[in-house]
Design a protein that fits this description.
The protein is built from 4 helices and no strands. Helix 2 crosses helix 3 and helix 3 packs antiparallel against helix 4. The protein is mainly α. It has one domain. Helices cover 73% and strands 0% of the residues.
Length: 122
């Protein structure tokens, strides 16, 4: 369990940077989902298709914000699952890698400030 007594200003700063990057990443994907769904000349998809995407994105952000270890695992899993859809290395680096890196950051931040080895609470 992480207590306030072991959190340092560096920890708070890294957590803030990680959260800002998480919101920027999620903001991009929210814009992308809405732009692809409603920005084209084709008929828009049923309302529930972008709603599912935005709900999953919101769940990832809230989980990473409230429970960094569980959110980190979920972000890494989502990034690796997304990587299976991309054939191009540049698409892989730009679209799947940020989720993996943010998830790894959440895990590293949570793991570094655990009170004891093996005390990583999801």
């Amino acid at each position: 369990m992480v207590t306030d007594s072991i959190r340092t200003p560096l920890h708070a700063g890294l957590r803030l940077v990680l959260r800002v990057l998480l919101v920027v990443w999620a903001g991009f994907w929210a814009w992308f989902v809405l732009a692809v769904s409603y920005g084209g000349k084709e008929a828009p998809p049923p309302w529930w298709i972008p709603a599912v995407g935005l709900s999953a994105l919101t769940l990832l952000v809230v989980l990473a914000w409230k429970r960094p270890a569980a959110g980190g695992v979920a972000l890494v899993a989502a990034g690796l699952a997304a990587a299976g859809f991309f054939q191009s290395p540049s698409a892989l680096a730009l679209l799947a890698a940020p989720a993996v890196l943010l998830g790894a950051g959440c895990l590293a931040l949570r793991w570094r400030y655990s009170t004891a080895p093996g005390n990583l609470r999801l």
